[in-house]
Amino acid sequence: MRHLMSPLDFSVEELDKLLKLANDIEKNPEKYAHACEGKKLATCFYEPSTRTRLSFEAAMLNLGGKVLGFSDAASSSASKGESVSDTIRVVSCYADICAMRHPKEGAPLVAAQKSRIPVINAGDGGHQHPTQTLTDLLTIYSLKGRLDHLTIGLCGDLKFGRTVHSLIHALIRYPGVRFVLISPEELRVPSNIHDDVLVRNNIPFREVVRLEDALPELDILYMTRVQRERFFNEEDYIRMKDFYILNKEKMELAPENMLVLHPLPRVNEISVEVDDDPRAVYFQQAQYGVYVRMALILTLLEVEV
Ligand code: CP
User: Fold this and answer.
1) Does the Cβ of 229 fall within 6 Å of ligand 1?
2) From CA 251, how far away is CA 244, in angstroms rounded?
3) pTM, 2 dp
4) Coil, helix or strand for 33?
5) Are strands 205-208 and 220-223 parallel, antiparallel or unpaired?
6) In which order are the strands placed within the sheet that holds 259-261?
7) Does the active-site annotation cover 139?
8) What pLDDT tens digit does each residue of the chain (305 aa) get?
9) In angstroms, what CA-CA distances link 89 with 77, 86, 258?
10) What Rg value do the Cα atoms of the chain yield, rounded?
11) What are phi and psi of 154, to 5 degrees?
12) Using CB atoms within 10 A of its CB, is residue 157 exposed (0-12), middle (13-18) or buried (19+)?
C-alpha cells in the first residue's frame, strides 16, 4: 500500500507516467467513468479548503466512485479530543482511500502510519501540499510541453507558502530549471529550502524583492497569496498583504509566452484585469487539478483501465 506525503514520493519516471495518465483522462473521460465503481474516498479536512477538497470529490465522482468526509475539524470528533491516529483507523473501516488536510505539519504522516488505506497529504501546515504540486506540474507540462529548462519565478509569501516549498522540491529534479525567488525580506524561503534544497543541490537561483526586475526573464510566474493564517500577528500580515499586485502594466514587462500560475485562493496579488490575459492560466490550473487527482486515485488504488 502506498501513500502520498510529498511530491518526492514519486520518482521522475512515476511522475511522468502519472502526468501522461492525467492527459489521457482529459482527452478520454468516458474511458475512466466507471474505473472506481464500488470504491469510496474519504476527505478529512481539519482546515478550510475549496479547490483541494472539491476537486478530490469531483475526481472520485468522475471515476464512478463515492465520497464521504468532513470539511471542518469542529464538525468531527477532533473537537472532542480524538487523535488523528484514532480517526484514520476508523476511517479505514469506511473508505478505500483518504485525502487529509491538517494545520499541523506531519499530521497526515502520523495518520498514514496507522492507516489500512492509502492516505494523501492534502496540505499540512506550512510544510507540503503535494497534490497542488502535481496540479502545477500537469499545468506546466500540458501548456509548455516540458518540465525541464525553465526559468520559474516564485512570488509572494515564500516563507509560509507550502505550495512553493513542494514545487521547488519537485522541479529541482528536472535539468535546466532555475528559480527567481521574488519576496519581501521577511517572507523569503526558509533555510530548509534555501540551504538544504537549493544550495545543497547546486540549483541556480537568485532572490529579488521587485517583481519588475524578474518578469522579463520568466517562463513561468507562480504567484502566491500572503498566508494570513500562519502569521503570529495581524499587524505583520497587514504590512505584507499587498506587497505584490500583478496588474496589466506589469504584465507588459513579461514575455509573450510566459504563463501565470496561482494555486488560488487569490486575495489581491493578481488584479482581476489580468484574468483576460491569455497568459493567465490559474483557472485552467484548477481544472487540471481534477485530472491529476483522478490519475492519483487510480494509481494509489492500483486500478488499471
Ligand atoms: N490551492 C488550494 O489548496 O486551494 P484550497 O485551499 O481552496 O484547497
Assistant:
1) no
2) 13
3) 0.95
4) coil
5) unpaired
6) 205-208, 178-182, 151-155, 220-223, 259-261
7) no
8) 999 999 999 999 999 999 999 999 999 999 999 999 999 999 999 999 999 999 999 999 999 999 999 999 999 999 999 999 999 999 999 999 999 999 999 999 999 999 999 999 999 988 889 999 999 999 999 999 999 999 999 999 999 888 999 999 999 999 999 999 999 998 999 999 999 999 999 999 999 999 999 999 999 999 998 877 666 687 877 877 888 999 999 999 999 999 999 999 999 999 999 999 999 999 999 999 999 999 999 999 999 99
9) 13, 5, 46
10) 19
11) -110, 120
12) buried
Beta bridge partners of 207: 181
Alpha helices by DSSP H, the chain? 12-27, 51-62, 84-94, 107-114, 130-144, 162-171, 191-193, 211-214, 234-240, 248-251, 282-300
DSSP per-residue codes, 229-289: GG-S-HHHHHHHTTS--B-HHHHTTS-TT-EEE--S--SSSB-GGGTTSTTB-HHHHHHHH
Q: Is 264 in the pocket of ligand 1 (CB under 6 A)?
A: yes
Residue 181 pairs in a beta bridge with 154, 207
- CB atoms under 10 Å from CB of 188, counted, come to 17
Is the CB of residue 52 below 6 angstroms from any atom belonging to ligand 1?
yes
CB of residue 11 inside a 6 A radius of ligand 1: no
Q: Which atom of ligand 1 is nearest to the CA of 289?
A: 1
* Active-site residue, 101 included: yes
280: amino acid identity, one letter: A
| Nearest alpha carbon, ligand 1 atom 1 | 263
20 catalytic, yes or no? Answer: no
> Partners of 222 in the beta sheet?
154, 261
Q: Which of 39, 51, 169, 188 is catalytic?
A: 51
